[in-house]
Amino acid sequence: MLIFSRPASHLRESAVTPRDLVLSRRTLLAGGAAALAMGTAFPAAAGFGAPTTVKPADAAADTVTPFKSSTTYNNFYEFGPGKSDPSRYANALPLRPWQVVVDGEVAKPATVGIEDLLRFPLEERVYRLRCVEGWSMVIPWTGFALAELLKRVEPTSRAKYVAFQTALDMKTMPGIRYPLLDWPYTEGLRLDEAMHPLAILAVGMYGDPLPPQNGAPIRLVVPWKYGFKSIKSVVRITLVKDQPPTAWNRLQPDEYGFYANVNPDVSHPRWSQATERRVGDFFRRKTLPFNGYGEEVASLYAGMDLRAHY
Ligand code: MTE
Questions:
Q1: CATH code, 13-301
Q2: Which end of the chain has the lower number of beta carbons within 10 A, N or C?
Q3: 120-165: per-residue pLDDT in tens?
Q4: Rounded to an integer, what distance in angstroms lies between the CA atom of residue 161 and that of residue 179?
Q5: pTM, whole model, 2 decimals?
Q6: Is the C-beta atom of 42 inside 6 A of ligand 1?
Q7: Domain residue extents for the chain
């Protein structure tokens, strides 16, 4: 499979990016005290605000991947197994209307329209993305903390995990005619992982709405995990008691674990994870534990054997 890596840390704003578009902190809407339930709970929105440029302290340390590369070299198997299939076919996926159902072990289940999701406090996060195949990219995402959405539906004390599901559209997704994965594509996180501030729901990249091949209109981005955890074109988020089944893990459990934290010490059966090649670079570089976000997330796994829970 192919996983991809997520640009990592949200790279300190200081350490990252190149062009003028980098860290823009647009805080578009803050959801006010919105009350929950659908209508009012989801504040009213805006659109993408104007990015604020943050000058990188060390632009050479980590350069944002060119837009062309990150939008033409993709994994989105619903549109085919080839890297160029998504950019060729995903345009056909209807992006409006779009709703995300948030249900399961929650006090206030909701069906939230994309317009309301765009009203969450959006900000730009420049993350490294590390694919299990051994390559990585650095992408400026626009999105909001997944925790913001989860808090509004009020998880019950029984909620321990979060299950995610991608849209399934026979008309526009040629890849789902083949049983490569057990469609629809599913993913999952432990609740504390999902509530971590680095985990976001992205609605844009490079300052514009997400291109279809990158998971429009809304996708998950979990920068300390291999790319396959970052499920695209999400239509359902369900809080559950037990660890949910996930697409790649069901297909090849020995290759794709549930946790999938970037770990240079645990090789994938087909690819060493010790080094990676940043798309656009010639030389490989060392892969960092948790994709470089260890300071922020390692405590989530205190006491766990991460070789067993790969
Ligand atoms: N989500 C869905 N629904 N279908 C997929 O095939 N591929 C995953 C992940 N999310 C995938 C998906 C994999 S393997 C990777 S590496 C990343 O998306 C790729 O994201 P990108 O194409 O935006 O770089």
A1: 3.90.420.10
A2: C
A3: 999 999 999 999 999 999 999 999 999 999 999 999 999 999 999 9
A4: 26
A5: 0.85
A6: no
A7: 13-301
